[in-house]
């Protein structure tokens, strides 16, 4: 049974996307955004919208409750739960195939699966010796494959029709984050390592570097050149409330810079409270970006003007992940406990996971100021 049945409406940029309503505590949804119905039961690790080739808009979420969920997002902002699939361990990452018919999922159970949304069937397509942290679909002119990054210190590339990887690369350390925008892939490892791959013809290493940030890498997202639409660099977030903007081949060394975010004034002696940057997502139309953090806020930024566009009110728990839909008019983000304050910081009565949808096209427009 296909999950694609029923409703073919797609979001237009001119859609009047109203404010959601909530009867719950104000700081659970301080921005009054739409709540996704039937959210995950445990911390939300990843969110990913369907590609723009589909007539409808779908949202996938992976969670520490071992499940992957799919919703259809309707024109009025309401969400319809469509289906879910299960791993035997927490789901750490998800990605879509380029044609929108399949979803790939990576789990602590050391496997990656392919979820065929037309048949609603799931099959294992990758295996590692440790949890799989990242999963990215690569669509090249002459090949397609799945890239998985694991805590077993390998990066593997899979033809999803065969049991063995078509390529396996041994890394110096565990994979913590990765992103793919053909023809570029970037992988961040523990020990602040960064490896850039070029994907033309076949994946091969292009460049190694050390993170521009002094602390552990947490998330990364590739950005595109505004004129050529080719991948030209990436943003990297760390556990220390800082983001690095890094060009692969900077025309000027000053093009690369870092900025502070997800920090708040501490209660004692003018010290700042510093929080991890949990996720970064670039707007598909404007090229601006969103960051979300353990401080319970999301922020919108213009990297070219080097300015902040907006910061949200504070939520009652961390914001763990985010994503923009293909048209760039919906911003999805999840609030859930991220264990940054350990077991003693968790209150199961209060800390229920939530996924929110926000109308965002105007808010993400580039600043009129220039750097």
UniProtKB/TrEMBL annotation:
WD repeats: from-to residues: 37-81, 84-125, 125-168, 277-311
Keyword check for NAD: no
Keywords: Cell cycle, Cell division, Cytoplasm, Mitosis, Nucleus, Repeat, Transport, WD repeat
SMART domains cross-referenced by the UniProt entry: WD40
Stored Pfam families: WD40 (PF00400)
GO biological process per UniProt: cell division
Localization (cell): Cytoplasm; Nucleus
PROSITE patterns: WD_REPEATS_1, WD_REPEATS_2, WD_REPEATS_REGION
Family matches, as InterPro entries: WD40/YVTN_repeat-like_dom_sf, WD40_PAC1, WD40_repeat_CS, WD40_repeat_dom_sf, WD40_rpt
GO cellular component: cytoplasm; nuclear envelope
Keyword Cell division annotated: yes
Top-rank taxon: Eukaryota
Entry similarity comment: Belongs to the WD repeat rae1 family.
Protein name, as recorded: mRNA export factor
Organism of origin: Patella caerulea
